[in-house]
Design brief:
By secondary structure, the chain is α+β, with helices and mostly antiparallel strands. It has two domains: about 5-65 and about 115-280 and about 325-445, Outer membrane efflux proteins (OEP) (Up-down Bundle); about 65-115 and about 285-320, Outer membrane efflux proteins (OEP) (Single Sheet), CATH 2.20.200. The protein is about 65% helix and about 15% strand. The protein has helices at about 5-10, 15-20, 30-40, 40-60, 115-180, 190-225, 245-255, 260-280, 330-395, 400-435, 445; strands at about 70-80, 95-115, 285-300, 310-320. The radius of gyration is 40 Å and the shape is elongated.
Length: about 450
């Protein structure tokens, strides 16, 4: 059997991928895997719990400005025996005796002037917004992580399919070279060269299988499924449109909408309110108090043998003026001012880092789309080169190694083209993440590109 026939019997790489990774298990789409990850991913669930905790913590600040109502009650039982200095019993009868006393009071306190409480309340509003930004950032991070793990599996599958296809082609070339050597139409050099290529392909296949196993475990860990099988791209010629806005527009957007920047900005606002709270330690406070109290004496008291009821409603305005707190307030102010400066630097660092991440993702997306077009042209050229080498071999112009090299180049180009497409889809999400506009709805356009 000649090599020309052997080469024509090798499977196209796309068909090899389908056959190599066909499974009886139902493949899942990207949206399905993300939905599974939302209920499984420990870091995302932790972020959700932290959001709920921050929400409750922010609402605690209402206690400083809303009315506070307290109820107190007590009951006592007293044994009383009264005597004069000369030992004679008191004239109050009966003597001794046992009587009970019950008391209760309801006190309402409303803050009229508490600068620290109002600063804490405004701080609570910033905490609410910061909690929402933290949760949004966690969701966006989960989106990118699941998508990256999803396409990492597909990339590893493509690499393994390439190695399997090359191994099959080299194996058939090795068999052909051995037959030609046996009949005297080829030298031992061709056999040894084919054997070396076959051994290398075998080693690469082992490494590729291990890499695929690791990538699948990572995807299972991310989405909480067992043996998760991602769907492949159905239409390799259709991807996403390039960004219509220029780079500066994306950078400007990221500096205002990015959850990371918003968290840092809100952290600065919270630190500023902390300074106000500390400064309020030097200021007086003014509260209004309304109380309604009563005392009931059962079976008399120390001075009267008969029971009584006493009611004592009252209203008061309480002024508290701090005079000296052992320098603690002064040093607390210094501490909060330093922390405010730190928060301002953290905000500036977050703004710069986000702008840089946006630029990196933007250039990566533009370059990735151009790279896809270049690989598509390279694929067509590689296919033409392979066809030409096959024809040249069939007429005796080329040798076996020329055909094998052309076939290997075509397979590698197909693999690199597929990876470039995957990278474009992931980079598009990273650009939106950096700009702060990434939502679960952004997965649907990618999902529409997958095989049904």
């Amino acid at each position: 059997m000649s090599l020309s026939r052997t080469v024509f019997r090798t499977l196209p790489l796309n068909a090899a991928m389908v056959l190599a990774f066909a499974s009886s298990a139902q493949a899942q789409s990207l949206v399905e895997m993300f939905d599974a990850a939302r209920g499984y991913d420990a870091s995302f669930i932790s972020a959700k719990a932290q959001f709920e905790a921050n929400l409750a913590k922010a609402n605690q600040t209402l206690g400083g400005i809303l009315p506070n109502i307290a109820l107190t009650a007590s009951a006592t039982r007293t044994y009383f025996e009264g005597r004069n200095d000369n030992g004679a019993a008191w004239p109050i009868s009966p003597n001794p005796r046992v009587y009970g006393t019950g008391s209760g009071a309801v006190v309402l306190t409303q803050a009229l002037y508490r600068p620290a409480a109002w600063a804490a309340y405004r701080q609570g509003g910033h905490l609410l917004q910061q909690a929402a930004a933290q949760y949004e950032a966690a969701e966006q991070d989960l989106l990118v992580r699941v998508t990256q793990a999803y396409f990492d599996v597909l990339t590893s599958e493509d690499s393994l399919a390439l190695v399997k296809a090359q191994k099959q082609a080299v194996g058939e070339q090795l068999a052909s070279a051995q037959r030609n050597f046996e009949v005297g139409t080829a030298t031992i050099t061709g056999v040894r060269d084919a054997q070396a290529r076959f051994d290398l392909a075998n080693a690469q296949e082992i490494a590729g299988e291990n890499d695929l196993r690791i990538k699948r475990l990572a995807l299972d860990l991310a989405v909480g499924l067992s043996n998760a099988q991602p769907k492949r791209l159905a239409n390799n010629t259709k991807l996403i449109s390039p960004p219509t806005e220029d780079l500066n527009a994306w950078v400007t957007l990221s500096e205002t909408t990015s959850p990371t920047v918003r968290q840092a900005q809100l952290g600065l606002d919270i630190a500023s309110q902390e300074v106000n709270k500390a400064t309020a330690g030097h200021k007086p406070t003014l509260d209004a108090q309304i109380s309604y109290s009563g005392v009931r004496n059962v079976d008399g008291s120390a001075t009267s043998p008969s029971g009584s009821h006493i009611f004592n409603p009252s209203a008061a305005v309480v002024l508290n003026v701090p005079l000296f707190a052992g320098f603690s307030t002064m040093y607390r102010v210094k501490e909060t001012v330093a922390l405010e400066n730190k928060a301002r630097s953290d905000y500036e660092n977050a703004r710069r880092a986000t702008a840089q991440a946006t630029r990196t993702a933007y250039f990566g997306l533009v370059a990735g789309l151009s790279q896809v077009k270049a690989y598509e042209a390279a694929e067509a050229s590689s296919q033409s080169a392979l066809d030409a080498n096959k024809l040249g071999y069939s007429v005796g112009v080329n040798i076996n190694i020329d055909v094998l090299n052309s076939q290997s180049q075509l397979y590698q180009t197909k693999r690199d083209l597929a990876k470039a497409r995957y990278d474009v889809l992931v980079t598009n999400l990273k650009l939106r993440q950096a700009a702060g506009t990434l939502t679960p709805a952004d997965l649907q356009p990618i999902n529409d590109l997958l095989a049904p």
